[in-house]
C-alpha cells in the first residue's frame, strides 16, 4: 500500500498526460481544417493573436493552478482541510481581480500590441480572446484545488470539455466569417479576409472556458460534502485568516509566475524577432506571416504534443513533492525525483526519434502540399525534435525544484536560458541568415542551458544521482532500433502504396510495438513498474501470456 501511495503521483500524472495528449490531438485535428480555411497567412495572424494572449494569460493567471495546488497539498498533508479550503476561496477572489484587470487591459491595448509585433491584422482576433482571460483565471483556481488533493481527474475532464466546445464553435465561426469577408473583399479590396477569419477562429475560446468552468463548479459542489466530513473528523488546527492566505498566495504566485513567464515567453519573443528581423531584411508581409505560420503551426504544434506529457507530469509532481517535504519525508521526495525523470525519458526519447523520422509523412498527411512537400516544416522538425527530450526534462526539473521549496531558482535558471535563446536567435538570424531555422536552434540552446543549471543544483545540494541504465541507455537503445524499423517500413511501403495515411499509420504502429518490445526485452520496464501504471495489471497479463514477462 505504501508503495502504491508513493507512486500515485505517477498514475495521476499519466491520467492528466492522457487528457493533455487528447486535447493536443484534438488541437492538431482542429488546425487541419483551420489551416485549409485561413491558409499560411491567416494562420500567421491567428498565431500572433494567440501568442500575445498566451503571454498575457501566463502573466495574469497561468501560474495559479501550480501555486494553489502547492499551498493546498501542504495543508492536506498536515490534515488542515479548513485552511486548504480557505486557500481556494482566497484564490478565487485573487483570480477574479487579476483576470478582470488582464481582460480590460488586453481589450484596450489590442491594436498597440498587434502593431508592436508587426501584425496589425491580429488585433481583432486578440480582442475576441479577452473574455477568456477572466474565465481561465478563475478556472485555474478550481483546477489547482483539486490537484492539491491529489486528483487530476477534474482537471483532465475539464480540459477535454473546454477543447471540444472551443474547436466546434471556432471552426463554425471562422468558416462563416471568412466566407462572408472574402465575398466582401471583392467590392472592398482594403478588407483582409484572413484577419477576419482569424477573429472568428478565436471567438470559440470563451465558450469552451465557460463550459469547462461550469463542470468544475459542479464537481466542487459534489465534493463539498466529503470535504465537510474531513474538516469535522480532523483534530483542531490553527485556522489561518484571509490576510495570511492572500500573503501566502502572493509569495507563492510571484516566483511561480516569474518562472512560468520566463519559461514560456520565448515564443512571443520569437514572434517579435521573426516579424521585425525578417521585415528588416526585406521580406514582404505575406512571406513573414507564412513563415511564422509554418513555425508556430506545423512545427510547434507537433513538438508540443509529447512535451504536454512532461507538463502533465510536472503538474502531478509538484504538489506530491510539496506534500512529502511538508511532512519531512526526504526519502520519498528523492524517490519521486528518480521516478519522474525516468518516466519522462522513457516517453520523450522515442517521441523525438519518431517525429524526426516521420516528419514529412506526418506533415504531408495533415497539411498536404504537393508544391513544396512541406519542406520548411520538415526541416524544422528534423532540427528541433531533440527539444522534445530537453524541454520535457526542463519542465520536470522546474517542478521538482518548486516542489522542494526552491521557488526562485527556476526563475533564475529560466531567465539565463532565455537570455541564451535571444542571443542565439538574433545572431543566427541576423548574421547567418538562417531565417526561422534560427528560432529552432535557439530553442535547443535555451533548453540545454536551463536543464544543466536545474540538474546541477539538484545533484549538488541533495547529493542526488540519477540512475543511468534504465533512465537513459535502455530507452535510447530501444528508440534506435525503433527508428531503424520505422524508417525501413516507411521506405518499403513507399514502393507499394502512395496512400499518405498508410505511409504514416503502419510505421507508427510498428514503432510503438518495437519500442515496447525492446523496453521489455532489455528490462527497461519491470512487471512491478508496469503494474503501477493505469491498466498496468491488464497489460501485464497480456505480456505474461506472450511470455514476455
Question: How many strands appear in the DSSP assignment?
Answer: 0
What's the Cα radius of gyration? Answer: 24 Å
Helical residue percent? over 70%
Please tell me the overall pLDDT. Answer: 85
Strand content range: under 5%
Put simply, the count of helices is 21
| Main beta sheet | none
Quick take:
With about 550 residues, the chain is mainly alpha-helical.
Topology:
Layout: H1 2-6, H2 8-62, H3 64-77, H4 81-116, H5 123-128, H6 130-148, H7 153-187, H8 193-233, H9 242-264, H10 266-280, H11 285-326, H12 330-357, H13 359-366, H14 375-384, H15 387-403, H16 408-430, H17 437-461, H18 469-496, H19 500-521, H20 527-531, H21 536-545
Give a written overview of the molecule.
Mean pLDDT is 85; it is low at 1-6. The longest helix is centred in the N-terminal third of the chain and has 55 residues, at 8-62. With 549 residues, this protein is mostly helical. Helix 3 runs antiparallel to helix 4 (81-116), helix 11 (285-326) runs antiparallel to helix 12 and helix 13 (359-366) crosses helix 19. It folds into two domains: 9-466, no CATH class; 467-549, no CATH class. 51% of the residues are buried. It has 21 helices and no strands. It is globular, with a radius of gyration of 24 Å.
Amino acid at each position: 500500500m505504501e508503495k502504491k501511495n508513493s507512486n500515485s503521483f505517477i498514475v495521476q500524472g499519466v491520467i492528466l498526460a492522457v487528457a493533455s495528449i487528447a486535447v493536443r490531438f484534438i488541437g492538431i485535428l482542429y488546425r487541419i481544417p483551420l489551416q485549409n480555411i485561413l491558409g499560411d497567412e491567416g494562420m500567421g495572424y491567428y498565431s500572433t493573436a494567440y501568442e500575445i494572449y498566451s503571454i498575457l494569460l501566463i502573466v495574469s493567471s497561468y501560474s495559479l493552478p501550480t501555486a494553489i495546488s502547492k499551498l493546498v497539498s501542504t495543508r492536506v498533508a498536515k490534515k488542515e482541510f479548513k485552511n486548504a479550503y480557505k486557500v481556494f476561496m482566497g484564490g478565487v477572489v485573487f483570480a477574479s481581480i487579476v483576470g478582470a484587470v488582464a481582460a480590460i487591459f488586453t481589450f484596450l491595448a489590442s491594436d498597440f500590441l498587434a502593431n508592436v509585433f508587426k501584425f496589425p491584422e491580429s488585433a481583432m482576433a486578440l480582442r475576441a480572446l479577452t473574455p477568456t482571460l477572466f474565465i481561465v483565471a478563475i478556472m485555474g483556481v478550481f483546477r489547482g484545488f483539486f490537484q492539491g488533493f491529489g486528483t487530476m481527474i477534474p482537471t483532465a475532464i475539464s480540459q477535454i470539455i473546454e477543447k471540444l466546445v472551443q474547436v466546434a464553435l471556432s471552426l463554425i465561426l471562422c468558416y462563416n466569417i471568412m466566407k462572408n469577408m472574402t465575398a466582401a473583399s471583392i467590392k472592398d479590396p482594403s478588407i483582409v479576409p484572413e484577419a477576419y477569419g482569424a477573429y472568428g477562429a478565436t471567438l470559440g475560446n470563451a465558450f469552451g472556458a465557460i463550459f469547462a468552468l461550469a463542470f468544475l463548479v459542479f464537481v466542487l459542489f459534489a465534493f463539498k460534502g466529503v470535504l465537510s466530513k474531513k474538516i469535522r473528523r480532523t483534530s483542531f488546527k490553527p485556522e489561518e485568516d484571509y490576510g495570511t492566505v492572500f500573503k501566502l498566495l502572493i509569495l507563492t504566485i510571484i516566483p511561480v509566475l516569474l518562472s512560468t513567464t520566463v519559461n514560456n515567453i520565448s515564443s512571443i519573443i520569437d514572434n517579435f524577432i521573426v516579424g521585425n528581423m525578417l521585415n528588416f531584411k526585406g521580406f514582404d508581409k505575406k512571406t513573414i506571416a507564412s513563415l511564422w505560420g509554418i513555425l508556430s503551426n506545423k512545427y510547434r504544434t507537433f513538438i508540443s504534443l509529447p512535451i504536454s506529457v512532461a507538463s502533465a507530469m510536472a503538474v502531478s509532481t509538484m504538489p506530491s513533492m510539496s506534500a512529502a517535504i511538508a511532512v519531512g519525508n526526504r526519502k520519498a521526495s528523492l524517490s519521486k525525483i528518480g521516478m519522474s525523470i525516468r518516466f519522462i525519458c522513457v516517453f520523450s526519447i522515442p517521441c523525438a526519434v519518431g517525429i524526426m523520422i516521420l516528419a514529412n509523412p506526418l506533415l504531408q498527411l495533415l497539411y498536404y502540399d504537393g508544391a513544396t512537400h512541406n519542406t520548411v516544416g520538415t526541416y524544422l522538425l528534423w532540427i528541433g525534435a531533440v527539444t522534445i527530450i530537453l524541454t520535457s526534462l526542463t519542465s520536470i526539473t522546474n517542478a521538482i525544484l518548486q516542489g522542494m521549496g526552491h521557488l526562485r531558482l527556476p526563475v533564475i535558471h529560466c531567465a539565463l536560458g532565455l537570455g541564451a535563446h535571444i542571443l542565439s536567435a538574433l545572431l543566427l538570424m541576423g548574421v547567418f541568415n538562417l531565417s526561422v531555422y534560427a528560432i529552432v536552434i535557439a530553442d535547443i540552446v535555451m533548453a540545454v542551458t536551463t536543464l544543466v543549471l536545474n540538474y546541477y543544483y539538484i545533484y549538488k545540494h541533495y547529493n542526488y544521482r540519477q540512475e543511468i541504465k534504465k533512465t537513459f541507455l535502455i530507452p535510447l537503445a530501444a528508440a534506435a532500433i525503433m527508428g531503424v524499423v520505422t524508417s525501413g517500413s516507411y521506405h518499403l511501403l513507399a514502393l507499394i502504396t502512395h496512400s499518405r495515411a498508410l505511409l504514416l499509420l503502419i510505421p507508427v504502429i510498428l514503432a510503438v510495438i518495437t519500442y515496447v518490445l525492446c523496453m521489455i526485452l532489455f528490462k527497461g520496464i519491470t512487471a512491478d513498474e508496469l503494474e503501477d501504471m493505469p491498466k498496468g495489471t491488464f497489460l501485464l497479463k497480456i505480456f505474461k501470456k506472450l511470455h514476455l514477462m
